[in-house]
Amino acid sequence: MRRKMLFSLLLSVILVFALATVAFAAYCMDCGTELPGGANFCYNCGAKQSGGSSGSSSSGSATSSSRSSGLEVSMITNNGDGTVTVRWTDSAAKGPYNVHKLQKFSNNFDADLDAAIGSFICAEDTPSRTAVIDTLVPGVDYWIIVENANGDYVYEAYDAGSMPRFYEFNTDVSIQLKYRRNNAYEEVNFFSASDFNRNRSNTTYGAYIRLDYPQLARARQYRYMVSITDPSGEVIVDALGDMELSRGRSYTYWTHYSLDWYLGLLADQHGSLPVGTYTWTLYYDGMFVSSQTFRITN
């Protein structure tokens, strides 16, 4: 985060000097990626650009809106394996394209864009007019945004419906919070927002996750996804990958992952780390497996 702040400060200085010239390139004000003029979303980090044009509000979940007459989402298909295929048309042929996701809290796209942490890129520099998205959390509604190389974009609501559940076998999940300070690890029952705000530059925050499986009759392989839900209900994908489970024996899987990037994102967005209950959730092939909660206090 310190590196990001230093980079943002350096970028501001660069832009001040650039303003004194006849013309200058556009850069993302969040991560510094160079963007085409008029871009509404950063191709790299998905942040909304203050200089871009905003789309009109969608009046319903089945309505799409666009500031480009040639760009239109034609179909969003749930593939039944935890992925979604998005198809679109563009009579102006202004590729390549980027596809973003934004959590849908209401029928007002602009209000959701302003309220949320931000949109997140799902497919980048796609030459064709179709993309498979594997980072949509089951049971969560989204705005799907397709943007062309000119910065024109179209958005459409994707209503996920009910969340499918995984019934093949039972999985027990536990989460143990830890932080490291001065090269020493300490297990804790909760994180303190005030502690994080004071020590985020010299402390690593994370957790140990333990997954317990019964003895399996045959090997299984799944596409797993882990999400974290904050107290306001906003959901972020934390991990995504493939997992193979061996047959003939019970299985215990331990892993450690860092929460620094996630907690820092929340603190930067809200000015301070939000307190309340957070939920860590595991999915296999787009189906709910299990979840655990952890707390952040004052």
Polypeptide structure, described:
With 298 residues, the protein is mainly beta. The chain folds into 2 domains: 2-158, Immunoglobulin-like, CATH 2.60.40; 172-297, Sandwich (Immunoglobulin-like), CATH 2.60.40.10. Helices cover 14% and strands 43% of the residues. It has 4 helices and 19 strands. Strands 3-10-9-6-7 form a 5-stranded antiparallel sheet. Strand 15 (220-229) and strand 16 form a beta hairpin. The longest helix has 18 residues, at 2-19. The protein is globular.
Topology (elements, then pairings):
Layout: H1 2-19, E1 26-27, E2 34-35, E3 64-66, E4 71-78, E5 84-90, E6 97-103, H2 109-115, E7 120-126, E8 130-133, E9 142-147, E10 153-158, E11 172-181, E12 184-188, E13 191-192, H3 193-199, E14 203-213, E15 220-229, E16 235-245, E17 251-258, H4 260-270, E18 276-284, E19 287-297
Parallel strand pairs: 13-19
Antiparallel strand pairs: 1-2, 3-10, 4-5, 5-8, 6-7, 6-9, 9-10, 11-12, 11-14, 14-17, 15-16, 15-18, 18-19
- Per CATH, the superfamily of the largest domain is Immunoglobulins
Which segments are poorly predicted (pLDDT under 50) over 5 or more consecutive residues? 1-25, 51-63
Number of helices: 4
How far is the N terminus from the C terminus?
Answer: 21 Å
Which structural class fits the helix and strand makeup?
Answer: mainly beta
What is the CATH class name of the largest domain?
Answer: Mainly Beta
CATH topology of the largest domain: Immunoglobulin-like
Estimate the helix proportion, in percent. Answer: 10-25%
What's the story with the biggest beta sheet? 5 strands, antiparallel
* Rg, Cα atoms, Å: 21 Å
* General form: globular
The sequence of SSEs as H and E is HEEEEEEHEEEEEEEHEEEEHEE
Taking strands numbered 1, 2, ... along the chain, how are they ordered across the largest sheet?
3-10-9-6-7
CATH architecture of the largest domain: Sandwich
The overall number of domains is 2
Please state roughly what percent of the residues sit in beta strands, choosing from under 5%, 5-15%, 15-25%, 25-35%, 35-45% or over 45%. 35-45%
Q: Can you give the mean pLDDT?
A: 80
Number of strands: 19
